[in-house]
Amino acid sequence: MTRDAWVPLDPSMDAAGSVRKRRVDDTTYAQVLSGDELHTAVANGELLWVLHRDTCNAFRPTNPMPAHVRDALPARRRTFRS
Predict the structure, then answer these.
(1) CA proximity to 30, closest of 56, 1, 51, 55
(2) What is the Cα gyration radius of the chain?
(3) pLDDT of residue 41
């Protein structure tokens, strides 16, 4: 199945990459590899790119406070104004 879509990539190649760039005429296409294709590309020493979504921290949840730290904090007091 082929679909046309923008594929944001990290700016440089990486050993942990899974994307092969293909240039056809003046257009560059990204081919996301998986399974046997990815294993073959890595075994052949191809330089691959990383999908930006795999490394981006913009939408990752923050690290939750560990329970032992939370339990050591003093209880919070609520004050209500009328």
Answers:
(1) 51
(2) 22
(3) 93
The 3-class secondary structure across the chain, one letter per residue, is: CCCCCCCCEEEEEECCCCEEEEEECCEEEEEECCHHHHHHHHHCCCCEEEEHHHCCCCCCCCCCCCHHHHHHCCCCCCCCCC
| Euclidean distance between CA atoms 71 and 29, whole angstroms | 52
**C-alpha–C-alpha distance, residues 24 and 41, integer Å:** 19
pLDDT of residue 76: 64
- Chunked into runs of 10 residues, the chain (82 residues) has average pLDDT values of 72 87 86 93 92 82 80 65 48
Q: Which amino acid is at 9?
A: L
In degrees and rounded to multiples of 5, residue 68 shows phi and psi of: -65, -30
